[in-house]
UniProtKB/TrEMBL annotation:
Pfam families: MS_channel_1st, MS_channel_2nd. One of its GO terms (cellular component) is plasma membrane. Residues 76-117 form the Mechanosensitive ion channel transmembrane helices 2/3 domain. InterPro entries: LSM_dom_sf (IPR010920), MS_channel_1st (IPR049142), MscS_beta-dom_sf (IPR023408), MscS_channel_2nd (IPR006685), MscS_channel_C_sf (IPR011066), MscS_channel_TM-2 (IPR011014), YbiO_bact (IPR045276). Belongs to the MscS (TC 1.A.23) family. This is Mechanosensitive ion channel family protein. GO terms for molecular function: mechanosensitive monoatomic ion channel activity. Keywords: Cell membrane, Membrane, Transmembrane, Transmembrane helix. May play a role in resistance to osmotic downshock. Gene3D superfamilies: 1.10.287.1260, 2.30.30.60, 3.30.70.100. It is a multi-pass membrane protein. Coiled coil: none annotated.
Amino acid sequence: MDQIKSILYSLIEPLTKPETYQTLISNIIMIIVYIIVAWIVLHFINKGIAQFFKIQNRGKKANKKRSKTLIALVQNVVAYVVWFIVLTTILSKFGISVGGIIASAGVVGLAVGFGAQTIVKDIITGFFIIFENQFDVGDYVKINSSGTTVAEGTVQSIGLRSMRINTITGELTTLPNGSVGEITNYSVTNGESMVEIPVSVEEDIDKVEEILVEHFETMRSKYYLFISNPEVIGINSITRDEITLWISAETIPGEGFSGARILRKEILKLFKQHEIQIPKPMMVQYDANQQNNA
């Protein structure tokens, strides 16, 4: 009984002393100061990191997407380091041994590691994706896992553990890095737009090609995504009603489909302007009486 009273007394006694509350208030104020200072430091460091990559890649369009990826990664790592320093400093203010916690964390981390193999796999895969430059923020990619497409769209962000992809229909897909298998990046090499344009067999095909070539010379300055002037490859097929022309254009990476849509729109407007006929189905009227008389 006396031991219980002694323990209770040792717990209650500090609460009766004003010095205890003064120390507590002082520590709380110090914690708030540390947090505010850490937030300000992170703000300026993040701005400095973004400015550094901006200066390094000024005028280099190919590296701008890479810079976005690395900026997010470096800022995340710096944030982890800063907040770890703040946490250890706060703990030391309350007399907690940081060294003992780190030593204990090593043992616990070893045990937890066996049960967190998926997270470890995600982080390792994230390192390979980022540092091997498999794709960057802003790239249009298709990602397969075990032969099945799990996501296709524009990369919004890449982290050490997961990535976010905006699909063409607007959904935001978050994928663990460890689930990534085959990667098809449509934004690395230049795209190609290939369209087939049907023209009536009654038209002068040489004149049609001449009109198309003349119009294509102005399209490159009108649409930024064309790297060179579109060109008429030639006649792809001939039937009783139509001649099919094959049109090709080189575009910037990832814009092959957009270029094809623009080509079809521009050619349709051009045909209407020059009254170039497109194929129309031919209707043959069958007269049963004439057949019987014959």
